[in-house]
Each structure stands twice: as structure tokens, then as C-alpha cells.
Amino acid sequence: MASGTLSSLQLRILSAAVMLPVAVGAVWVGGIAFTALVVLAGIAMLWEWWRFPRQATTQPAVWTRGPLWILLGLVYVILPCAALIWLRQTPEIGRHIVFWLFCAVWATDTGAYAAGRTIGGPKLIPRISPNKTWAGLLGGMVSAGIAGGVVASLDPAMPALMLAALAALTAVVAQAGDFMESAVKRYFGAKDSSQLIPGHGGVLDRLDGLLFAAPFIAAWDLLSGRVLWG
To answer: What's the predicted TM-score (pTM) here?
Structure first.
């Protein structure tokens, strides 16, 4: 049993060791490299969305096999992908914005998991995701706030405190995205969206928070006139 657990952990670490430098490198380079990575991830997520009703262990509604389900998937996936590409193409500061966003979402996942496991306590929405707690929500917000503030402080032109607060708010949005995907998986009786990423499940499983956070930051960017980015 211990050997199997260790093997699973090693697989997760190996996958992360491959994905992390690829993602960071694409954000750093930008241009066609970043766009290509986002498009590839988008195609994978659309495929996972399409297969949900076809791999269901429950009896989903008939409409989930029709065009309306596909349309919902297109909105769910393409809007965040477009938001990411648009943010990265922002002159001069696109790299900083997307890197800050990625760090905020990654910190949310890590902080929520750590706080949920160590503190536990009352559940958020147990019918959808029985393992997520209020402590996890707050832990994700704190972790994202710290990460967002630290990343912002690397650029003197960026207001670190304000971006730390925005990162904490983004954590709430990202966790809403997590709940959204959990609700879809529960409806179809799926544990993971796929097995495309060894040890992690599917692409949707890894990027569910980013799917909500990216449009949120893009909208904030538009409405605020980009004053937060220096």
C-alpha cells in the first residue's frame, strides 16, 4: 500500500516537474509559444468536456449529448483561453500580469489543500465537493494574497498591497471554478475529467480555477483601466 502511494506521489511530482517549466517558459516567451500552449490546453479541455456525458456512470439528461452541451463547453473553455491570450499580449506588462495570475491561482490550490487537510472544520458545499472546507477557502485566500503581493513587489511600479488584495479576491473566484468542475464531475459520476496528466487526472482538473480566474482578471483589467499594473 505504501509503495503504491509513493509511486502515485512520484508520478504527480514528475508530471508537475514537466508542466511547471513548460508553463513558466511559455509565459516568459509569450507570442506564438504561449498562444500555442493555451490552444493545446483548450483543445484538451474541450475534448474532456465532450466526453463527460459519454463516459458517465450515471444517467445524465439527454441534452448533454447534444449541441447545447457543446455550446456550453465552448463558452466555458474558449472565453478563459481568449482572456489569457489577451492578457499576455498586453504591451510591456503582459508577462507580469499572467505570471501574477498563475501564481495567485497556484497558491490558491496549495493553500486551500493545506488548510483543509490540517485544519478541517465545517464543509463549504458538501453535496458538490465533500472535502472542501471553509478553512480551505480562507487558506487559499491567504496563500494567494501572499503570493500575489510577493510577485507584485518584484516590480516597483506595481502596487503590492492592492494586488495582494486582488489576489485574495481572485482566490474566491478560482475556488468557484473548482466547485463548478466538481459539480459537473459529480453529475456524471466521474472522479477525474480524464487521465491525460499522469497522477493529476485531466487538464480540466488542473485548470478549473484558472478558467474562472482568467476572465475575472481580464474584466477587472478592462474596467479598471489597468491602473493596478503600474
So the answer is: 0.92
Determine the Cα–Cα distance for residues 142 and 210; give it in Å rounded to an integer: 17
Host domain of residue 168: 2-229
Report the DSSP beta bridge partners of residue 133.
123
CA distances in angstroms from 57 to 51, 60, 189, 208, listed in the order given: 12, 9, 5, 21
Report how many domains make up the chain.
1
3-state secondary structure of 201: strand
Distance CA 190, CA 184 (A): 8
DSSP-based three-state secondary structure for 133: strand
Q: Which residue has the higher pLDDT, 225 or 6?
A: 225
- The mean of the pLDDT values for the chain is 92
Place of cell 516597483: 156
